[in-house]
Amino acid sequence: MGGEGNRLERFYGEFFAWKINSNNPRKYGIVDTSGPGGIDGGVGPTSDGSRRVSIYAQVNDLQATLDRGEKLGGKTILPPSEVPGTPAAT
Questions:
Q1: pTM flag (> 0.70)
Q2: Is the model's pLDDT at 89 over the cut of 60?
Q3: Rounded Cα–Cα distance for residues 84 and 65 (Å)
Q4: Average pLDDT over residues 53-78
Q5: How many helices (H) and strands (E) does the chain have?
Q6: The dihedral of CA 88, 31, 17, 50: what is its sign?
């Protein structure tokens, strides 16, 4: 969710190859991940210009995906790290 829903749609649509349909009165982008195990969701504008994001995505190569996001204008805030006791860390 952010101040410019259409800009977010373009970024995340290209970044993850998601299909996003915002053809509705609220201009809320309904996300279709089209992938096995994907979690559909939404992208859209906020009325007060605030920004927030929660994304859960499964990718084959995390670093390559983050690199692609940076080429599209995104920024990695926290680099990948292992969380002790989780399946990825074992």
A1: no
A2: no
A3: 22
A4: 84
A5: 2, 3
A6: negative
Nearest to 32 by CA among 15, 49, 20, 23: 20
Residue 74's nearest CA partner among 11, 9, 6, 3 is 11
Tokens 């995390």 identify what position?
Answer: 62
Backbone angles phi, psi at 73, to 5 degrees: 105, 0
Q: Are 58 and 65 in contact (CB under 8 A)?
A: no
Residue type, 11: F
70 pLDDT higher than 90: yes
Kind of pairing between the strands at 29-32 and 41-43: antiparallel
Q: What is the pLDDT of residue 51?
A: 67
- Tokens 């859209």 correspond to 44
- Coil, strand or helix at 39: coil
pLDDT, residue 3, reads 65
